[in-house]
Amino acid sequence: MFSPFVPLDRWSKSRVLFTSGALILLIAGVDWRVADDIPLGFLYLVPMLMLGRVLTRWQIVPTAAVLTVLTENFDSFFWTFRTGLPRDVLYFAAYLAIGIFVNESARNRQIIERHVSEIERESAARQLAEEQLKVLIETSPAAIFTTDADGCVVMANDAAHRMLALAPGDLCGQLLDRFFPGLSTVPHHNLSRHFFRTVMQSRGVRADGDTFVAEICFSTYATKAGVRLAAMVLDSSEELRTHEQSSLHQMLVGSRIAVSAVSHEVRNVCGAIKVVHQNLVRGLVLKGNSDFDALGNLVVALERIAAVDLGQYPENNTAVDLIAVLDDLKIVIAPTVQEGDIECTWHVDSSLPPVWGDRTKIMQIFLNLITNSVRALRQCDRERRLSVTARSTHGGVAVDVVDNGGGVSRPQELFHPFQPGARATGLGLYLSRAFARSFGGDLRYCGQEGVASFTVNFNAVPLEDSGP
């Protein structure tokens, strides 16, 4: 905004009043003593420009009247009502108008300066907040994304690129649904009518094809450029690994407790047999011998105890998505495979039907098989290879777990508990086969020399029973 005499803005009010008064007196004196035929009233506009900056509107009015009187008294024109009054009105209007103009200009300038100062403060505060937010986003361990209404990534931090195994900046412009298929259920094109604030768990896919479990907190919001989606993602694969490994550990611990109880009873029976046997050795006639009859009863009891099958309990089997189970398995065993320098390959048919079983127990079967394979492979000096293949069969699904860890020396004893040389109780394979058979399937060993190959068979769920 234009403001005359800009340097005067730095003057105090008293200095402006003194300088303006001195100019008025000087102009009046010159007009009275020197200029007889030349009117100098227009020079009063200069002090009026100065006074308009420091006086109020009501102070400008009498000041304009005083300057009008001075101009009329010291000019050379003869005053009459017909000519003098209009001339004085014009004088007064000119002085008043210039004073009001300068006063409004000065007031508007002050308002603009305050507004500009406020904008600068807000801009500085906004810039500081943006810098802090940028630092928070860039240093956050969680992956943070924003997408447009079409699902294309607009912004992603460094953690997001590391999580998805991408170089910095490569994520922008790509569809986020490619990496988090679960977000495809969010209706991007209708976000303007329905805004979301929720948390979901989804399977994430890295750029190199690896999968992981993602906890996604996302919300939608409106901007001038359209609807946006903001998401914060955490990799919860480690929690899944801990949960599944803990489940396997608890299962094995529980089985050891049960088998210990059975073993205790077996030892008691065997001790009694030993005593009876010693008595019979000392005797000469067995017929009608009560010890001999007792031995028969003890043998029958021992057979009953040995006939206990852990897989004969009733099961509540349901339809299980085997592809999802194998995806979780891949996440769980990934660190173990990497630490063992094992080349692991997966071949999973994408059209596998659901199978009958219990998801937790199916996971335990595969964890036990792969744990055994990893243990065997760690003792190999050659290239270590492990493969998992899932394929459809007639009326079911078969999953092959194959490793080149040297195979099994006595395959006929694989699924028997308490094998010589086995770790702990040697119940892992025994329980795994019991679980598989409880689903109506089976676990078989099909290995060759130098190669161990286990096949887990499942029954497929008919389409009409698998649900929508």
UniProtKB/TrEMBL annotation:
Residues 112-139 form a coiled coil. It is an enzyme of class 2 (transferase). PROSITE patterns: HIS_KIN, PAS. Its EC number is 2.7.13.3. It is a multi-pass membrane protein. One of its GO terms (biological process) is osmosensory signaling via phosphorelay pathway. The keyword Transport does not apply. InterPro entries: BphY/WalK/GraS-like, HATPase_C_sf, HATPase_dom, His_kinase_dom, PAS, PAS-like_dom_sf, PAS_fold, Sig_transdc_His_kin-like_C. It is found in: Membrane. Residues 261-462 form the Histidine kinase domain. Residues 129-174 form the PAS domain. Keywords: ATP-binding, Coiled coil, Kinase, Membrane, Nucleotide-binding, Transferase, Transmembrane, Transmembrane helix, Two-component regulatory system. This is histidine kinase. It comes from Bryocella elongata.
